[in-house]
Amino acid sequence: MFFNLFGAAKLVANRRARSTQTLGARALCIDETGEIMSGGINAAIVPCMKCLGRAVRVYEGMENDGYECNECGHKFSIDWSHGGPPVKPCWPLSEEEENEARRIIELINKRG
């Protein structure tokens, strides 16, 4: 889930991933070439960590994925190794999830 970022969750599936396998306690997503995808099928699009706009995956790594926001251009990465890949799509956010995410961003911005 997207709780790794804001406590919110939803995302559009990436059709490249074909399976999820378990290695020890960690879930691994494998694409059609056998390569490991850190965020998996539910991590193709996530809310931007700056503006909550639509951020698409531009890099797939072993433990983290890189994203770029279509709205503000912000670039960031998500380390999926701690909580594993999201179990459901992270985009689009529901109204409740968006409100909670905006509240958390506001608190972070206040801390400076």
Task: Describe what you observe in this structure.
- The chain is built from one helix and seven strands; from the N terminus they run βββββββα.
- The strands form two sheets. A four-stranded antiparallel sheet has the order 4-5-6-7, with no helix packed on it.
- The chain has one domain.
- A hairpin with a 2-residue loop joins strand 1 (17-23) and strand 2.
- It has one helix at 95-111; strands spanning 17-23, 26-31, 36-37, 45-47, 54-60, 64-69, 75-79.
- The chain is an alpha+beta fold and 112 residues long.
- The two termini are 27 Å apart.
Please provide a brief summary of the model.
The longest helix is centred in the last third of the chain and has 17 residues, at 95-111. The protein contains 1 helix and 7 strands; from the N terminus they run E-E-E-E-E-E-E-H. A hairpin with a 3-residue loop joins strand 5 and strand 6 (64-69).
Radius of gyration (Å): 14 Å
Residues in helix, %: 10-25%
Give the strand content: 25-35%
List the domain count as a whole number.
1
Main beta-sheet annotation: 4 strands, antiparallel
Distance between the termini: 27 Å
Count of discrete alpha- or pi-helical segments spanning 4 or more residues: 1
What's the shape? globular
Mean pLDDT: 76
Number of strands: 7
Enumerate the strands of the largest sheet in spatial order, edge to edge or round the barrel: 4-5-6-7
Residue windows where pLDDT falls under 50 for at least 5 positions: 1-27
Pattern of helices and strands? EEEEEEEH
Structural class: alpha+beta
